[in-house]
Amino acid sequence: AQSVTQLDSQVPVFEEAPVELRCNYSSSVSVYLFWYVQYPNQGLQLLLKYLSGSTLVESINGFEAEFNKSQTSFHLRKPSVHISDTAEYFCAVSPFSGGYQKVTFGTGTKLQVIP
Amino acid sequence: GAVVSQHPSRVICKSGTSVKIECRSLDFQATTMFWYRQFPKQSLMLMATSNEGSKATYEQGVEKDKFLINHASLTLSTLTVTSAHPEDSSFYICSAILADPVHEQYFGPGTRLTVT
Lengths: 115, 116
Prior knowledge:
Chain A is an all-beta fold.
């Protein structure tokens, strides 16, 4: 079984400041890792994912996340946030497998960007 | 990218009535869709896995007779909340996976159900 921990339920940050949203996971097998973003009253959108290869993955809107196997972490970072980044962010994992496996989500972190 | 739609986006119904929520994959065929429920300030809870042409697989604790799932075609899955009660009020989200890459889910925009 897998579990995902997002310790910060809310993160307020001023516009143009850097931000890090923390994610730690637990699993007895290798996993795929994901970050999803949810805007108010909308479904989830995939922000970025780690499958294999380079441990640093980037999204098209300036976010990046680094897979750290030894610390079982996949923290999400952005060097300079915008008002439009205000949303809830979910970290998720699924077991590495040839077929589909269930995704386990964290409890989410609300990023509030302050003008 | 793959697009998943849900209808309706919001619905209000009276206690005791049933309501149907549709989930459609618009530009791809989805043999497998998922239904989630999201409570305020909580993460997504997987309710069931919907497989085209076969019975849905429900997660532990989810009443299959209350939450009826039908996956009649490769592009449509429906969730019917039967005899709705106020405690069924929630945000329901569906998702679908492509055959490749099989690990990636595409989510619908969600349906806000309010039972009065």
